[in-house]
Amino acid sequence: MYRILFLGPLLKHILEQMDLYKTGAAPKLWLYSGHDDTISRLGMAMRVWGDIYPDFSNAVIVELHGDQAGNYFVKVYP
Question: Any idea what the Cα angle at residue 66 is, between residues 78 and 70, rounded to 5°?
Fold first, then answer.
């Protein structure tokens, strides 16, 4: 479980950019790249999968969606 703690700065940055996007102060698209360790830990931190390593050239897609009422939600595609 301690391995997930190393993702703190990345998760913080993702959440901060989502908050900024809601106010119109951030770009629409952010791309990150990393090794299998990073992608695996990101998936574990988001509770997308268990303690597994992803396949080679795998990706995790995180999307922020909003409706006309100003409600936002996140979709995660492992």
Answer: 150
- Listed as ranges, residues in the chain with pLDDT below 70 are 1-5, 50-52
Q: What is the pLDDT of residues 25-47, one digit of tens each?
A: 888 888 888 887 788 788 777 77
Report the half-sphere exposure of 57 (CA within 13 A, side-chain side). 0
Q: Which residues contact 43 (CB under 8 A, 6 or more apart)?
A: 49, 54, 60, 78
Helix (H, G, I), strand (E, B) or coil at 1: coil
* 60, 40 Cβ separation under 8 angstroms: no
